[in-house]
Amino acid sequence: MVTIMRDIIGILAFLVFVMLFLYNTEVLEYFGIIVPDQWLHVNTIFISILLEAFPFVLLGVFTSAFIQMFVSEETLRKVLPKHAYFGLISAALLGAVLPVCECAIIPVVRRLIKKGMPLHFGVVLMMSAPILNPIVAASTYYAFQQDLSVLYFRMGLGFILSIVIGFIIYRLFGSTNQLRWTKDGLTGAAGIRKSVRTSKVKQTFYHASDEFFDMGKYLIFGASLASIVNVFLDRTMLAALTSTEAGATGIMMGLAFIMSLCSEADAFVASSFSNQFSTTSLLAFLVFGPLLDLKNTLLYFAYFKTKFVLILMVTITVVTFGSVMLVHYLLM
């Protein structure tokens, strides 16, 4: 019954997305419906967030499904570093070559943890991939060609912070299992389908479709919240709070969380703030957003235990703010 309800919710969410994508002001006027311009703007931002995120979500769920079907636990045990601390660097370097954003990496890491990857290695991978991957580096380069220090600091901080956050999580949680297991995850549809004699390619598509609908509803809800806050947030009030470097940095971190941009595109938005905010606060925006925003927070809560997610959120926030301010006072 739960599986059927989940599928119905996923299909309804997809239909709502299609309807929102197709409707326009002419259709509304034909039916005599008057919608304020602000809510039309909400819809525009909502659609843009989804269109940005969906290709990378698809990449993530198919990568996750591929790992499920073709990477065995034994193989993972052989390739993973044995040392709890030195392995953090390897995990960060692995994140640097994965072309996935903050949404796509979460199902990949969940699958790897289920396969036997230590929790803290998975956390490093979730932190490093959205910042260090080649697509993000290229977009940041093009957005800040006039000031490449932003690119260098973003890549450097992303690498260091992912290792520091992974180290803290290891010290707090060790090798304990923090995944939120569901009945479907243990005995659900995927397991039933596996019992049917089908090729591994078909099973990969089955796993990917299950994960896509499971993840999609959280993404749609997160995009809805982000688009509403984006439109109704008072920008003039924010500008009044940027008199200090710490205040401006905090404001930009808050904006990064609320706006929920994909890391492949956030550099262009950040560059548009160059005349209003300092380089330090822009750096905070570019580092914090890929690590923690509205939409991936919902995914964290969906896939990991509540206590773990809350501690992870506090850790990311404190470490990012502290490191950016340290960079400002020492290097800028």
Automatic annotation (TrEMBL):
<comment type="similarity">
    <text>Belongs to the UPF0718 family.</text>
</comment>
<feature type="transmembrane region" description="Helical">
    <location>
        <begin position="151"/>
        <end position="173"/>
    </location>
</feature>
<dbReference type="InterPro" id="IPR005524">
    <property type="entry name" value="DUF318"/>
</dbReference>
<keyword id="KW-0472">Membrane</keyword>
<feature type="transmembrane region" description="Helical">
    <location>
        <begin position="215"/>
        <end position="233"/>
    </location>
</feature>
<keyword id="KW-0812">Transmembrane</keyword>
<feature type="transmembrane region" description="Helical">
    <location>
        <begin position="121"/>
        <end position="144"/>
    </location>
</feature>
<keyword id="KW-1003">Cell membrane</keyword>
<feature type="transmembrane region" description="Helical">
    <location>
        <begin position="83"/>
        <end position="109"/>
    </location>
</feature>
<feature type="transmembrane region" description="Helical">
    <location>
        <begin position="308"/>
        <end position="331"/>
    </location>
</feature>
<feature type="transmembrane region" description="Helical">
    <location>
        <begin position="240"/>
        <end position="261"/>
    </location>
</feature>
<protein>
    <recommendedName>
        <fullName>Permease</fullName>
    </recommendedName>
</protein>
<feature type="transmembrane region" description="Helical">
    <location>
        <begin position="7"/>
        <end position="25"/>
    </location>
</feature>
<keyword id="KW-1133">Transmembrane helix</keyword>
<dbReference type="InterPro" id="IPR052923">
    <property type="entry name" value="UPF0718"/>
</dbReference>
<feature type="transmembrane region" description="Helical">
    <location>
        <begin position="45"/>
        <end position="71"/>
    </location>
</feature>
<feature type="transmembrane region" description="Helical">
    <location>
        <begin position="281"/>
        <end position="301"/>
    </location>
</feature>
<dbReference type="Pfam" id="PF03773">
    <property type="entry name" value="ArsP_1"/>
</dbReference>
